[in-house]
Structures are given as C-alpha cells and as structure tokens.
Amino acid sequence: MKSKLYPEIENYIQDLKISTISKDRKDLLQSLINFIQEKKDKNLEIKLNFICTHNSRRSHLSQIWSQTMASYHNIENVTCYSGGTEATAVYPMVIETLTKTGFKIASNDAEINPIYDIKFRENELSVKGFSKKYDDVNNPNESFAAIMTCSHADENCPFISGAEKRIPVTYDDPKAFDNTPQKAAKYQERSLQIATELFYVFSMIE
Fold first, then answer.
1. Collapsing DSSP states into helix, strand and coil, what is residue 48?
2. By the 8 A CB rule, do 121 and 4 touch?
C-alpha cells in the first residue's frame, strides 16, 4: 500500500465532484478509459502523452493530474508525458496553481524553459515538467495514447507518429485571461476541471 499523497492534495481530491462532469464529457473520456483498461488487462505499460500547441498550460496540468490520479487510485505501470507542436516554457501560473493545490515543486531556475521537479507524495519520483515537442526524446515513440488537450493542436497536427491511439479531450485555454483580474481564478478553474475529469477516468479502471 502506497503512502498517502501530500495532505493538501488528498483533501483537494476528496472534495472533487464527479457530478459536475456532463454526460457529453463522460462520453468523450470513455476512449481514454478504454485505452487504460485494455493496457491494464494485458499487464502492459500505460503510456499517456498529453499534447497541446505550446506545451505550456493545459498539457502540463493534464500530465501532472493524470500521474497523480493513477497513483491515488493505485493503477500501476502508468507513465504520463506531455508535449507540444512546438516548445516554449511552462507558464508560471501553472506552477503557482499546482503549488497552491499542495504539490511540492522545485526548479533549476533556468531563464528559458526551466525544468520543474513536481511531487505529489513522499517516496515517489518527481514528475519532470518542462516544455518540449511531443516527439521529444523524453517522450514515448510507440504504443502510447496521444491525448489532444487543445483544439488547435488537434486540428493542426493530424498525425502523431508512434501513437497507438489518438484521443481528443480538449479544454478551454486559461491563457485567454492572462491579462485580466480573473487570471488566477481561471487557472484554478481549469486545473479543477482537469483534476475532476482525470479522477473520474482512473476511478473507472477495474
């Protein structure tokens, strides 16, 4: 039995409400549930690559929450990745949002595209968060699911080499609120949505 997640994250997860997920969204998430279940049933590694245009916001939130929820639900052999159609940098508000939720995050302090070590429990390897292309050497090149987290990447990147399955699960971009008073709230809102939906996904795995 694994140790619990950091208390703040445990409490956050326990307050999530699956009832807020619409039937249409659940139908959309079913393909991801099926992919994970099929791999688990065959005792195969479950590789999930969350892809967005700049690999700076939604794809990172999805990667981190997916890895966290897999651990929370004790689903083994899950490795989550993220990438973009181009590399930029993790947007600082993403790190701030995750930190406020209870994740322990350290950085190498690079001025351009810093690498973040993101942890959700003690005695667990950190998730490496940095912006990269989806086919980066750090990402899988075969037998993975490509989860398209933004419509722009989904529409403009019709072929993902090596992907066993392509699954569009798109989210509204909190970037739209970057220069507004609602900025922090909107990033929290998007993180909450992603966390809730990925909690649901892994809760459905038998």
1. strand
2. yes
Handedness of CA 12, 26, 30, 204 (dihedral sign): positive
**Of residues 144 and 154, more confidently modeled:** 144
Q: Tell me, what's the pLDDT at 162?
A: 93
Both tokens assigned to 148: 């398209």
Of the candidates 19, 35, 128, the one whose C-alpha atom is nearest the C-alpha of residue 82 is: 128
Extract the tokens encoding 22. Answer: 């619409």
Residue type, 38: E
Indicate if the pLDDT at residue 2 is higher than 60: no
Instruction: Please state the pTM of the whole predicted model.
Output: 0.96
d(CA 7, CA 17): 18
| 104-107 and 116-119 beta bridge pairing | antiparallel
Collapse the DSSP code of 100 into the 3-class scheme (helix H, G, I; strand E, B; otherwise coil) and give the result: helix
